[in-house]
Amino acid sequence: MNDTTDTDLVDFLDLINFTLKEEFIDRWKYRFSPLFLKEFQLKILGSLQNRKPLKIKSLYNHLSKKCGYSEDQVENFFDAVDISIYYPVVIGKLT
């Protein structure tokens, strides 16, 4: 592997590590509820444990329909955290 690939992998692992820590909740709790953030963490963790990517539409439906958060809140969250950087754990588009 080259240095760029190694750096990208380390950066991605750092992102996942940060996302699963309490620091992630502390970072975003003023814009989104801690329970909302924990739901997101659980879905990311579940995807990693199952070794299956999480479809963004599935994540969106889980947060908006099953958990009852507004569609605007979910979309704002995806924009705020730049959900695309979670690829390959979170895949797809919301269109």
Number of DSSP helical runs: 5
Structural class: mainly alpha
- The overall average pLDDT, rounded, is 94
Strand order, biggest sheet?
Answer: 1-2
Q: Would you report the number of β strands?
A: 2
What brief labels describe this structure?
95 residues; mainly alpha; two-stranded parallel ribbon; 5 helices; 2 strands; globular
Provide structural commentary.
This protein is mainly alpha-helical. The chain has one domain. 66% of the residues lie in helices and 4% in strands. The protein has 5 helices and 2 strands. It has helices at residues 3-19, 22-28, 34-50, 56-66, 71-81; strands at 54-55, 90-91. The longest helix is centred in the N-terminal third of the chain and has 17 residues, at 3-19.
Short description:
With 95 residues, this protein is mainly alpha-helical. It has one domain. The chain contains 5 helices and 2 strands; from the N terminus they run H-H-H-E-H-H-E.
Task: Please outline the helices and strands.
Blueprint: H1 3-19, H2 22-28, H3 34-50, E1 54-55, H4 56-66, H5 71-81, E2 90-91
Parallel strand pairs: 1-2
Helix pairs in contact: 4-5
